[in-house]
Amino acid sequence: MIEAGHFALVLALALALVQSTVPIVGSRINDARMMAVAAPVALVSFALIALAFLALTWAYVTSDFSVVNVWENSHSQKPMLFKITGTWGNHEGSMLLWVLILALFSALVAVFGRNLPDQLKATVLAVQGWIAAAFLLFILVTSNPFARLVPAPFEGQDLNPILQDVGLAVHPPLLYLGYVGFSVSFSFAVAALIEKRIDAAWARWVRPWTLAAWIFLTGGIAMGSYWAYYELGWGGFWFWDPVENASFMPWLSGTALLHSALVMEKRSALKIWTVLLAILTFSLSLLGTFLVRSGVLTSVHAFATDPTRGVFILGILTLLVGGALALFAWRAHALTAGGIFQPISREGSLVLNNLFLTTATATVLIGTLYPLLMEALTGDKISVGAPFFNLTFGSLMVPLLIAVPFGPLLAWKRGDLYAAAQRLAWALGGAILVALLIMLFVDRTMLFAALSIGLAAWLMLGAATDLVLRSGVGSQPWSVVRRRLWGLPRSAKGTALAHFGLGVTVVGIVATVAFQTERIVIMKPGDTIDFAGRQLRFERVEPFAGPNYTEDQARFTLISGNRDVGTLVAAKRLYTARQMPTTEAGILTRGFSQAYVALGDPSGDGSWVVRAWWKPMVTLIWLGPCLMMAGGLLSISDRRLRVGAPARRRSQPVPAAAE
Amino acid sequence: MTVAKLIFAVLVLASLCLPAHAVRPDEILADPQLEARAREISSELRCYVCQNQSIDDSDADLARDLRILVRERILAGDTDEAVTDYIVQRYGEFVLLKPRFGYHTALLWGAPLLILVAGSIGLFMMRRREAATTALLSEEEERKLQAILRDS
After folding, report:
1. In which domain, by residue range, is A557 found?
2. Which residue in A292, A574, B133, B137 has a CA-CA distance of 20 to 30 Å to B1?
3. pTM assigned to the model
């Protein structure tokens, strides 16, 4: 089975080489048979890589410790879920997941791309083939997950305990679906440059793929943030860690791409820029893969001592990104610029969005790479961490967030800022009211936090404005409003929902950062502490044995207004195989807020160090991205977005349910 | 992406940097205002042995020493800047999570503004060029237009 997997992977590489050459030659010499090779090859490649992936998963499921990778990262006592997820909880396996998802996207293009012109489809799949070939070669040469170990050990070394969590089942697959999903936009952009042709139809094809990748990446990042929040045990949700930045940069530029593709589709403007952005977004995904997988982040020296993998990925990065950018420099002028517009217009607002998002992306990029470059060039070591990013990134976001509600209210070509402002007056009034209420009733000293929550309210009310006006809330009877709301294009509703979600996230972040309460105390069972207008009672500590760990569980009761409202269980856990301790936080959700308790060291006399937080509105931080994803899904389901959708409707009359 | 972060936090820097429980109860200053200042300062100082963690977040012994040092300096009456200077003098600029502005970091700090301004200028130039080229019809287009008008 293992050797079959290995063999399938080698076959997939051979097919990827076919996929990267035959169709593109076919499209150059206009040979329909050669172009037709692309789709079936893409499908079979996917099947082969899936087979290889299943083979590795099977080795994990059956705890086959004759496979080095399984021995290094698994244990026979590990719960089944973590045996399966352990497949991608390591370097080799996660790279295999990476190419699996790449092949999945190629297969999807092959299946859903029936409406694409043959030449474009062949070229797109060929570009996908280049990426696949490069990374398959990388896996086979430097990171073979199928290497054997003789003699096979009796027991594995277990998976890193912190990764033994449902988070590992969801976070990396989602993240990779996003990261790698942008490869499709990249391939479309490169194909457009090769074919020297790009039009509104191109944008219409690219947009759903970009949107799909963006939805996954949004989910992946949010999920990762929540995972770190509950698993690492100090209640932080974003650390501006280089590895986080690596996933955040494609998200930022992908968001910009989403908006510029809109301009291109609707107005044929910003073509060159959209193509460049599509190339840059996937380049940032590749850069992220390089940063995470090469070890360069730990230190430049660690990278220098074992550079094989790093240099290989750097080579792929240089070839793909450099090649694409060179092609862009060579061919971009051949793409004609399209529709013109006034600065104050829907297009103008989207350009402003792109300006700020791109600057923000560049800021994160420079902040992440600056210490590395500085150390490599001068040997000086500096650190660039959260305080830097909060200041610079935060300052860039404020004007952008202020501008967001205006966008959807401006007309294409030439908008009326004054009219838009008039229509947003109630949202501004609402935002000021919210800020005032927070100053008056929550905390008079927190002017900045009150203003920030006001800004979030402005975003939420502003996002609702478009729908409210178009559906006639207030001026029409409810039945008319409901019918009109139902009839509004899904993309408009999706936009409103996503922008609303952004506001929700801002509320969560500001409320948590500014208004959270922290207590660090020594407690004995039976003790009660006050915090955030509530009490926390330490009930007892009891030992507990899990499948592959033992732990001391501490039970706490949250008391609000003399009433017990719930139990929190925090634990100090010891994973026996690796003899590694972890801290399991106790979390109790009340409305949108959470109580969060982490256990410290025991001090011998039965007392424990306890860290307790009240985190107001904290769940909104992750609820916001859920709304953004829902908005994206709503938008992607808009029939107008799908090329050829009307034709399908004719042949397959199920409109009422599908609408 | 947190997977690798988690791997870093635990695998690479194993026992040193388990994050939970950074500040311990015995470190906390009696005066809440001074303590708040100490927390503020600590959150901007990097734990020397950890991957991207402030001393306020890190459980490493060195981080604890630094936290105690920060509090000692505050009790000794130092201003926030003086405390930071004191730490930087001993441990180098590497401990600052927000690097100081200087020749060596001018590009880092200047980048956001520079890119924003350059982007705006680029957009402005593009707009002017577009307005100049697209507003007028080329000679050939003018001829075609006249022909169409004549025919109709």
Report:
1. 518-615
2. A574
3. 0.90
